[in-house]
Amino acid sequence: xxxxxxxxxxxxxxxxxxxxxxxxxxxxxxxxxxxxxxxxxxxxxxxxxxxxxxxxxxxxxxxxxxxxxxxxxxxxxxxxxxxxxxxxxxxxxxxxxxxxxxxxxxxxxxxxxxxxxxxxxxxxxxxxxxxxxxxxxxxxxxxxxxxxxxxxxxxxxxxx
Length: 160
Known about the structure:
The chain is an alpha/beta fold and 160 residues long.
């Protein structure tokens, strides 16, 4: 069944799972706008005069200088119709968005990697996978990803 055309899409997954690639493809295929959670957190840290050098450290640094409530508020501020929220890494984040956006789509991108054990958000990842409406396995070819996205989303997003 088709749902609201521009319902928000939440993208979760470990580092390197293809979250941003998925978000960019969904942007192109469905005319959505990508909002990257890491960039939101980086901007908030910059406002607080905190510099973050690598992407993996953004979450940890954010929570040294801000609360979970502030994180959840930022997610809600940037979630909306026609938005792909790229990089929600915490179960509480997805749960909070779902409380306010009942018609959102949660996509979990997954990829088996040795480096995954070093991902600081690995524990949440399996829970996020289980909560997801759609699980997208990593695709090496963009054309394969596009086919998979269109197949998985045909019942979620109308193409009018």
